[in-house]
Amino acid sequence: MIGEIVRAVATDYGWPEIAAPEAEEKTLSPAELSRVASRFEGGDLKVVLEARPEGLFARLVGGARAERLIAVSPSRFRSESLGVTVEFDRDFQSCTMIEGAPPMKLSRIKEDATQGSRNRAGQRGQPDGATGG
Questions:
Q1: d(CA 13, CA 63)
Q2: Which residues face 87 on adjacent strands?
Q3: Range of lowest pLDDT (10-19, 42-51, 71-80, 97-106)
């Protein structure tokens, strides 16, 4: 365990002689990517993960630009621009930042089905309970 800590610190500080070797990107199937896709929240951070044919993309809620994440394994993904690696738990209901950031757990958010239908009704110009009369 101490070796992992030393390599993590060396990676963060740019000490290549003892830093962890760069992990190669893994190619994941659409099914593997779709297990991860959802909305996750933790602390003040809200992120939407989207599976696309070219890989997994992360976008901050309210943000305009999504970043492609690098698959290190079926349960680990790295953000190149932020230098952050996250690892998902076995059932993909949460993930933890394990490198490049303070440890933070993000949990999958289940969207309320009634809220979704309420939003769609509002888009049609029909408030909830309206009969269109």
A1: 29
A2: 76, 96
A3: 10-19
Task: Dump pLDDT digits (tens) for 111-126.
Answer: 754 344 333 333 334 4
For residues 38 and 108, the answer to whether their CB atoms sit within 8 Å is yes
Give the model confidence (pLDDT) of 34-74 as tens digits.
999 999 999 889 999 999 999 999 999 988 899 999 999 99
> Which secondary structure element, helix H or strand E, spans residue 124, and what is its range?
none
User: Taking the alpha carbons of 123, 125, 130, 133 in that order, is the dihedral positive or negative?
Assistant: negative
| CB within 8 Å of 30: residues ≥ 6 apart | 51, 53
CA distance 8 to 12: 6
Contact 41, 52 (CB under 8 A): no
Q: Going by C-beta distance under 8 Å and a sequence separation of 6 or more, which residues neighbour residue 40?
A: 46, 47, 48, 49, 94, 95, 106, 107, 108, 109
Dihedral, CA of residue 79, residue 84, residue 88 and residue 94, to nearest 10: -100
Helix locations, 42-111, DSSP H: none
Give the length of the chain: 133
Tokens encoding 39: 């909305």
